[in-house]
Amino acid sequence: MAATEQQHEQALQKFLDERPELRHELDNLNPLLAQAKGETAAQFRDERLHEAFEAEAERLGLFAWELTLQLTAATPEDYEAQRLNVHREVAEMAGMDWLDYCELYGLIP
């Protein structure tokens, strides 16, 4: 199953906890930038956090949901099992053969 909203929130918190420089940057955003976008300071901050999270996932060659699983899984084995389960769900939803899907995404089933 895909990562839950609760898992994603936990992953964002861990991501932020591991990056004090990002936390400092987010805590000191210019409130006028938020106002210019018609957002509250909290909405603007959350948007920047999500952008940083997605950029890190991309840098690692992962989907954001994979980074969420990686940051919240109890063990590397648990991460791999959850990751493959989600990929299997995606393949099924796309109507793709599992082995073809694995080849397309470089997965080892």
UniProtKB/TrEMBL annotation:
InterPro entries: DUF6388 (IPR045662). It comes from the Bacteria. This is DUF6388 family protein. The lineage of its organism: Bacteria, Pseudomonadati, Pseudomonadota, Gammaproteobacteria, Pseudomonadales.
